[in-house]
Design brief:
alpha+beta; Ubiquitin-like (UB roll); about 180 residues; five-stranded mixed sheet; 5 strands; single chain
Length: about 180
């Protein structure tokens, strides 16, 4: 099958990649670009493990075709690091033990970071709504919500600039697997 050469803006960096027309963005990120922080879950858009940000909004990369997002900013978990510092939400996850097996962690972090970018002091209801599309089988969500609350209370997100160059971060949720 013929591959198509496209340019994607991922974590603030333009990347050329030859894609198969039937491959999803999740497959291209993981298999072609080596960004394995985006997890391969259900392939049905039901679990949230493959969550990325498109122009700052959470999206399920298993349901997105790369050809459809050539003109959009894509942020993966590897792109949350800024100036050598992991995102405050990643720090809070580590401090509170919000990551158990870690499989849902990248999607949770990206959905949470998107919420905090729009609303630095969300209510518990808004937090639950923002994470509703991300399933976790290990934590019971309590520590995840506590991490969001901690970052909101500290007001740290305003200090953490978002969406620029890719990094090789191995911070919480960005570990290559």
């Amino acid at each position: 099958m013929q591959r198509t050469l496209i340019t994607l803006t991922i974590n603030g960096e333009e990347r050329e990649v030859a894609v198969l027309p039937h491959h999803t963005l999740m497959e291209v990120l993981r298999e072609d670009l080596g960004l394995t922080g985006t997890k391969h879950g259900c392939e049905l858009g039901e679990c949230g493990a493959c969550t990325i940000l498109l122009d700052g909004e959470p999206a399920l990369s298993c349901l997105v075709l790369p050809l459809a997002v050539q003109d959009r900013a894509i942020t993966t978990i590897e792109g949350l690091e800024r100036s050598g510092r992991i995102h405050p939400l990643q720090e809070a996850f580590a401090e509170l033990g919000a990551a158990q097996c870690g499989y849902c962690t990248p999607g949770m972090l990206l959905a949470g970071a998107a919420l905090l970018a729009k609303n630095p002091r969300p209510t518990p209801t808004k937090m639950k709504e923002a994470l509703a599309g991300n399933l976790c089988r290990c934590t019971g969500y309590t520590k995840i919500y506590e991490a969001l609350e901690k970052v909101a209370e500290r007001g740290e997100v305003e200090k953490h600039e978002t969406a620029t160059p890719a990094s090789s971060s191995n911070g919480i949720g960005g570990k290559r697997q």
